[in-house]
Each structure stands twice: as C-alpha cells, then as structure tokens.
Amino acid sequence: MDISSVLQGGYQHPLSRKWQAKRTLTKEMLMYPIFITDDPDAHVDIPSLPGQSRWGINKLEGFLAPLVKKGLKSVILFGVPLTCPKDGKGTPADDPEGPVILAIKLIRKLFPSVYIATDVCLCEYTSHGHCGILHDDGTINSVPSADRIAEVALSYAKAGAHCVAPSDMMDGRIKTIKRALIDNGLGNKVTLMSYSAKFASSLYGPFRDAAGSAPSFGDRKCYQLPPNAKGLARRAIQRDVGEGADIIMVKPAMPYLDIIADAAELAPDYPLAAYQVSGEYAMIVAGARAGVYDLKTMAFESTEGILRAGCTLILTYFTPQFLDWLDE
Ligand SMILES: [Zn+2]
Fold first, then answer.
1. Looking at domain 23-325, which of 3.40.140.10, 3.20.20.70, 3.40.250.10, 3.10.410.10 is its CATH number?
2. Per the confidence metrics, is the pTM higher than 0.90?
3. Is residue 324 a contact partner of residue 70, using CB atoms and an 8 Å limit?
C-alpha cells in the first residue's frame, strides 16, 4: 500500500481520536433554554418535549440548584404567560411583575455565577401571536416592531440580564436594541446575541406547545427565512454584524450546518451560537426510544456536527444530561 493511502494509524486510539476535533464540547459551551410561566408554583411537564417543563418562579431554586452544582453555566429564559391579557403590541412582555423579569432578578440573586440570557420576542405576548406589530392588513409594521422589541430588550437588561437575544427576525431590530442599550448606559454591560439566521422551520412545534406562541392566523414566512435560502441567510448574518450584534446565532442547527459554516466564515471574529431546537431534541429522543440509536451517543454526535461546522455555543435541551455525561 502507498504511504499516502494509510490514514488509520492516526486515529487508532481513543485519545488520538479526540485530537481530531478542532473544538470539543465543554460545559461552558452549553446554554440551557428554560420556560418560565406566570403561575409561580408551576412545574408542568411538556409532553412533546420529553424531560422539559414549564416552571414557576417559586420552583426555580429547586430546579436549578442541582444543575448549578453539576456545572450549569448559562440559561436562556423564555416567558410563558398563560393568564395575562394579550394585546397588539405585546404589553405584558416587559411587565415588571411578569415571569421573565422576576426570574432574571431571582436567578441573579440565588445563583450569581449563572449567565442569564433572555429570549426577546413579542409572540408569546401578542393577541395575534406574531413576533412584531402589525398593520391593519396583517403585514409587519417594521419600525414600531423594532422599537417595541428594543423596549422589551432594554427592560430585561435593566432587570439584570447578561445577554438579550432577539428572536423576532424584524428588520432593523439589532441596531435599535444596540442603540437603546448604549443610550441607557448598558452598552458595555449587556451582550446582544442575534438570532440572525432563523429559518421558518417545521422543527419548532414542541416549543410552540411549550410557550403557547403559535400565530392565530397566517405563518411567520414573511420574517423567518425560507429553508432554501443560503444567500439571504448570509446577508442576514452580515447585516446583524454590521448593526452591532455581539454573538451570531443560527437556528435550527442540524439541517443548517452549511449556514453555520457560512457564519463562521463571514463572522470569524465573533462567538457563533446554534440553537438545537425543540423538534431536533424531540426527534433525537424519539429515535433513541424507537431503538434507532443510543441516546447519549447520538446527542454527542449531533453536537459534534454543530461544533465541527464552527459553533462555540450551543443552546440545547440536552444541557442537564450533558452536565452528567461530560463528567463520565
Ligand atoms: Zn416570536
């Protein structure tokens, strides 16, 4: 055999196989998505997201303490208002007594080491379930949408969030949020993580169950990106870098690894995040239950793909399990 034909000598040992990675999963790379609801005593399992629940703020300490002890470094909070009156501009999103703001303050106090990101969107709080403010004909009204998203982001930042992460996909919102943070003395205190390339995916179903955020009419295809859109995703990433994002995110992860690789090429000097979304998580769990593969092996393989594509941060519902698995 030719010398140039032999590769196996380089990865014959478990340790030399590890060295093949440019980047290996650590606990610092994991951000755990958490659903906070407005019933303070809630602990309600989400059937379509096995192992995940909606939590009331009175249950957060008991829920998070064991995870923090195992090395949980960061969370991203999603508000799930079930009882508040919703309206056209998502007024309850920044209610000072709302679940997200209360949770930010509580987690800061109970677990000062935990990095708190907050998802910023209006869809959980609007009567129509869309992510922005609408014209009478049901189309997006861009400028007031970005203004309102920035108002909500600013209120989370003022409550103590380390990072605000707009997922709404409204045009111009990154610039508007960055300006609001700077003008309020928070420009150097709060990270702006943009859901830059967020696709209109079928993989958000379990999340919508969890957050109660399905639109009451139409869909989100006029603001989330079409799944076939590579050029548009590249433009969105470059736009958000130009508008002042500190971290770029691609969502979902697994069907969009090429977009992650594009983001790594377009924004090489930025942390790059991927959201392994609810449907990806549910699919991996369902496959394991059906005997298709071993859950842990597949969970690692899925994140290895995301890291190989270029990510440095993964939002994943597997975080609690990885905290155990990474210690083994
Ligand atoms: Zn939304």
1. 3.20.20.70
2. yes
3. yes
